[in-house]
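Q: Give me the 3D complex with zinc ion.
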Amino acid sequence: MADQGVSAGQVYGSESGTGRPQRSLMDAVKRGIRGRCPHCGEGKLFRAYTKTVDQCDACGEEIFHHRADDLPAYLVITVVGHIVLTLFLAAEIWFSWTSWQHLSVWVPITLLMSLAMLQPAKGAVVGIQWANYMHGFGGNHEELDTHPELSDSVVK
Ligand SMILES: [Zn+2]
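A: Here is the predicted complex, encoded as structure tokens.
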């Protein structure tokens, strides 16, 4: 495993984060995939389909400062695209389907797989960010250079 054999005093997240305890990446990703808080694994991570809770109900871990952005969608597109394209090409070789038959099979499969995978993928990405003390998960509030008008409200 990649996270083994690392000394306890290793710096994570930023130069101001020395001495932080190591967080298990695998546990955090598994909890995220199950839709649970990456810290405790008990509280819910999502309040709606892909809307995360602001804070864990069970342990109080702040979730709102994750920056998953469009990485979950990118991962889902990559995975679903490879699976569906492979199956499509296999079906094209093995069967002689019409275009309508292909459409009636692959469009629903693509939609269902994508919708089913988006929430677990987002949970996994939030888990990765939490385990690595990324963004606000290290206790440092970020100032976003692209939104200077928000800097007063972000730094507290
Ligand atoms: Zn929690």
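A quick observation: The chain has one domain: 25-141.
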